[in-house]
Specification:
It is a single chain. The chain has 311 residues and is of the alpha/beta class. It has helices at 34-39, 64-79, 95-105, 128-139, 228-239, 257-268, 297-309, and strands spanning 4-11, 49-57, 83-89, 111-115, 146-151, 154-157, 162-163, 172-173, 181-184, 187-190, 214-219, 243-249, 272-277. It has an eight-stranded mixed β-sheet. Strands 11-12-13 form a three-stranded parallel β-sheet, with helices on both faces. The longest helix has 16 residues, at 64-79. The two termini are 38 Å apart.
Length: 311
């Protein structure tokens, strides 16, 4: 029977360090190693764990190469019969993108659990230690599977979770459907089925960033005229890369007439287009340009990246 939880560190605020214990914003992300993070949680001592530092990034600087290396490493760990589950420490800024990526490329029969923090490891009331303990607890619970995110006592599906606050500790939510489970004093209370994952294949993600398509994220707003669309088409042509455009529309994915016209023309010339919404919740329904459904705009960008890569 597998018994070990493997923790993969990628940096982020959970590994952040500041000069003062009361400083929650002026810190350096990714400064603390995963070994120190584990050692700072007394309740993890004696738990069968292994860990490694895959990256030490501020997640605002997450890149395609790190995504590919992370996906391949997690797949290798899932294939190891000694590994019961995988925990990934990550920065909050792009966590919903990385988690969605792994949800799409993996199909884990074991738990893959992201966790993070809004306060650095040096904070007087750091939230990272409890989140890490909860994540390990979820990863050790028999029957749990799929790519999940554990934060503030809630367990979210990777394809639904969103960062909803820039500063508060309760910074994540799943606006359409809510969490799939709750961690209560170390015990897991399941509320909904575990996600399955799609299994597109981690090995299909290029290790070189230049091998990925260029997928840009546009926004509809007052006065937007779509002038950037032909400029991006020219840039992608010069780079020799496929171009995709994700647009976060207003309301139900609605677009200003000039922007929609520019996107339609781009689509006719072979550019892949996907339409999301800048609203905090709800899907994009109907319309003629392809819909991203209920994905957030950043997750829709990951989806279009994968669609272009997997063709």
């Amino acid at each position: 029977m597998p018994s070990q939880v493997f923790i993969v560190g990628t940096g982020g605020t959970i590994a952040g360090s500041a000069a003062s214990s009361t400083d929650h914003v002026g810190y350096r992300a990714g400064a603390v190693g995963i070994d120190q993070l584990v050692a700072a949680v007394p309740a993890l001592q004696g738990v069968p764990l292994a860990f490694e530092q895959l990256a030490q990034l501020d997640s605002k600087d997450m890149d395609f190469g790190t995504w590919a290396r992370l996906a391949r490493r997690v797949q290798a760990l899932l294939n190891d019969p000694a590994v019961q589950g995988v925990v990934i420490t990550h920065g909050t800024d792009t966590l919903e993108e990385t988690a969605y990526l792994l949800h799409r490329v993996l199909k884990p029969a074991k738990p893959v659990v992201f966790t993070a923090a809004m306060r650095p490891a040096t904070a007087l009331s750091a939230d990272g230690p409890q989140n890490l303990l909860d994540a390990v607890s979820v990863a050790r619970t028999p029957g749990v599977q799929g790519v999940l995110m554990v934060f503030g006592g809630a367990v979210h599906r990777a394809d639904r979770v969103r960062k909803v606050h820039s500063y508060q500790v309760q910074a994540f939510a799943s606006p359409d459907g809510g969490p799939v489970a709750l961690v209560e004093s170390g015990s897991l209370r399941q509320l909904a089925p575990w996600p399955a994952g799609d299994g597109l294949g981690a090995e299909r993600l290029p290790l070189e960033g230049a091998a990925w398509p260029r997928v840009e994220l546009l926004w509809n707003a007052a006065g937007v005229d779509g002038a950037q669309v032909p400029l991006l088409m020219e840039l992608a042509r010069r780079e020799g890369r496929r171009l995709g455009l994700v647009v976060a529309g207003t309301g139900n994915g609605t677009l200003a007439n000039p922007l929609e016209a520019a996107l339609r023309e781009a689509q006719e010339q072979g550019v892949a287009v996907l339409r999301s919404t800048r609203c905090a919740a709800g899907p994009v329904i109907g319309g003629e340009l392809p819909s991203a459904g209920a994905l957030s705009a950043p997750q829709a960008r990951v989806e279009l990246l994968l669609q272009l890569l997997m063709k």
